[in-house]
Amino acid sequence: MQEKLYFYYTNDLHSNFNNWPQVAGFLKEAKARRASENQASWIMDIGDHVDRVHPVAEAFMGKANVQLMNDVGYDLATLGNNEGITMSHDELYHLYDDAAFQVVCANLQSMTETEPEWLQSTVYLQSDSGIRIGVIGLTAPFNAFYELLDWHISAPFETLEKHLNHMKESADIIVLMSHLGISQDQKIAHRFKAIDVIIGGHTHHLLRNGETVENTLITAAGKHCGFAGEVELTWDHARQELIDKTAAVYDMTEQPRDLAAEETLNTLTEKADDLLGKPVIELAEPIEVKWFQHTEIMQKLTDTLKEWTHADAAMLNAGVLLDQIPAGFVTHKDIHRICPHPINPCMVELNGAELTEVIRASLSKDFTELKLKGFGFRGEILGQMIYSDLDVQTVVRDDGSEYLESVYYQGMPLDPAKQYRIATADTFTFGRLLPEIANAEDKHYVLPEFLRDLLTYTLRHKVPAD
């Protein structure tokens, strides 16, 4: 006799709720259909469901996301970095207190005295016929951030070595919920052949029919729930083994909307508006924001960044502010809309030669006009770099291009060999935007504050109130 087992999953929603009513309807219908056919099925999320870029996630600090997952009937979830490092320790510690699903993340540990009650390293599922499925979850090891929040992420490969032998003895099938990214999933499949399925995320890759590496089926469904995924496993009871594994994704934009989910979202949005509607300051005049010019508000924000981090100097791109700040009462909702990024302040140590190269690169149109997606940035373009306690002298050529002429710190030219502590957005410590910052050996992140918290402080303390 053969038996089918089904896993339905989402990954990297990032609180983008545009398709959520369709996702909810699809998942509810799929689970009901499998139950009517007497086939086992489970719903899981692979992390980054929460993203504080959305007012609902911001107002409820992720707990509204958990409510939405409860309403759908999720069975399992693991953590992404957006759940892990965009909240205080206490906020993450209690994020899943009311979850009706099991939270599985084997490489997350609290550095305080107790672990959250909801945290499990592995779980075991069982079909009515007795097939046992061992599930383990892993998340990306961003310990430079996690440890500032009193969490630690163990190395994924070492964590698998610790758990897999016991899982092989206890389960017929092993499934990994991986918020590690496609390249790590592929490496795991090559190395750990006992894993039957890896359901992945983090790098927003879309594998429409999955891919097979060694004996492991790898799958993922992109980002923002434009798609939701299905894994179908076929177990042969006579042979006592898994004989087939397939993966598929389904376009959520083509699915009918679940009215209950839509109504819940509307209610949560209204409540979020109320919670974020508290005024921060009353302004007599609107505050101008420009992406390619120096403005007073960006200068004050960059000065705040320098002071907040106790740096020698600071630099911040003007594109972090998305819109003008209106006259009248400015609320937390306004600030969230204007500066929605989950970006933390940070300080890096650069010598004068490295800092000069960073400033030179940031003057180019390739930098200022870059439409960046990712690394925490949720804006349109990077914009002009604004400096605090750095005097940057440039030359504008006939073609409009701007070139660096000289840089002064405290009235003196930068010393190529001297170390300077430079505050900036943590965005630049990732990728290849500004290699000297990304490759700096000394990086000091400030958590859990976001840039919008510094903007709130700036408005309250450095801008005249009405």
From TrEMBL:
Keywords: Hydrolase, Nucleotide-binding, Signal. Residues 8-205 form the Calcineurin-like phosphoesterase domain. Residues 290-427 form the 5'-Nucleotidase C-terminal domain. Transmembrane segments: none annotated. It comes from the Bacteria. Pfam families: 5_nucleotid_C, Metallophos. SUPFAM superfamilies: 5'-nucleotidase (syn. UDP-sugar hydrolase), C-terminal domain, Metallo-dependent phosphatases. Gene3D superfamilies: 3.60.21.10, 5'-Nucleotidase, C-terminal domain (3.90.780.10). Belongs to the 5'-nucleotidase family. This is Bifunctional metallophosphatase/5'-nucleotidase. It comes from Lentibacillus kimchii. The lineage of its organism: Bacteria, Bacillati, Bacillota, Bacilli, Bacillales.
